[in-house]
Amino acid sequence: MTAPAQNPANNINTADLYDERGDELASVSLQFQCLGGRSHFSGAARTIRCFQDNALVKATLGTPGNGNVLVVDGGGSLGTALMGDMIAESAVANGWAGVVINGVIRDRQAIAALDLGVKALGSNPRKSAKAGAGEIDVDVEIDGVTIRAGAMIWCDPDGILVER
Question: Global pTM?
Fold first, then answer.
């Protein structure tokens, strides 16, 4: 598996970045869990809005990530996982820096061993639908913070910051 392109911003602490840039950044206050093997990750956001259907997540993470971060707005659903270990392995192989899921994952122990940043609300072993319902590269809103495709996003154990 190929690691995502090295990005110096991957080692930046969000607290320090916020101290430096302040209101240029929006902070997501929803308490996401750090579930991947990489604690600090950042990159340009790609976005997906879907609900209990991970076909677009799988397809997108199967394409070159170029060090980007996929932000998935799953509506905060805890009912079905939007990413498992095979999709996460594909993300690593395709050079994604990380994934932020406003929803849940599964296979959390296997995902924790991967060189991939993962923030999600938790886990659920139940798999999702695969019909392809949803939208890609649209503005998504998580906890009152709008995330535009192409905006920079920084994640670490302290939280998530997004370029306004």
Answer: 0.93
